[in-house]
């Protein structure tokens, strides 16, 4: 999942660089996009092996790549929409009541369904902060719901504003600076604002990618130390920053292979959508297993104290939620795949199957010798 996800995020690097230097006409070039990701990702890989880049770039990257862009998009989008009103040439078009009801005759937009759902995946990772909260049992669910509500409202607001401003049929999915450039022109503002915005986002994405490079490495190192990966891969051996060189290098090789999709598919929008869908589908499979395990443990370990229990008593509500979650995931995935072009659909299914099956095959063929070899290596390193 991390391979497709990282390339998907990195897809925005080339468009941002083009807009930063006043050449938005080059942002859709697939070859330049591929070369840009390849060079920059290997650069941040080398830097992460030499320096502790996660400590340096994590917080700055989030501000440059997420917080500030979201606010700028909303403020400029709102100002532009107030000035021009509903744009009949935009994706929203003119308002009519019948548009509030989905058009069953044209379901092509369903191909974006999983991608939209992907925005909200991973919010449960915030649970790592539970030990720092007071009365976490009551406050954490409230905070989680408040965050989710804010995320939904902000994305809907920005989505509507961008849809009103960008001319129909011209949206570049990987180019977040596109609406800013259009808004500068409509508001009579200097386009250098869009250039600065694009360069800021470029730095933000680059710094966030740099911070993410070592994240999977530490997770894979932990898995290797538990003897769940072949010792010959050397994933349990780390440098002075606690980063496994082997993991990072193999990760970069796979990401380099994923960039070939730009040549195979030949369209930046299509590549971005394919990678987003692959990441979301693999992520969703994990959610399906979580739902199944929650219900399974209710019956296998009924006496365990559960602070965040679904339902005050019995298992009916937990089963209902599990069915709704699994049904939603299956429904969204099916709708997305059925409305996606056949060639892209095959790529999405193929990559998703490989990424899902690969760890299961490794786990099924695990050997006790892996654990003993890892322990021996770690003992030698400490000596």
TrEMBL record:
Any single Pfam family the record assigns to this protein: AA_permease_2
Source superkingdom: Bacteria
Keyword Membrane: yes
Keyword list, A-Z: Cell membrane, Membrane, Transmembrane, Transmembrane helix, Transport
A GO CC term assigned to this protein in UniProt: plasma membrane
Bilayer topology annotation: Multi-pass membrane protein
Record bears the keyword Transmembrane: yes
Location in or out of the cell: Cell membrane
MF-aspect GO terms: transmembrane transporter activity
TM ranges: 30-49, 61-82, 112-131, 143-166, 186-209, 247-265, 271-295, 316-340, 346-364
Protein name as catalogued: APC family amino acid transporter
Organism: Dialister micraerophilus DSM 19965
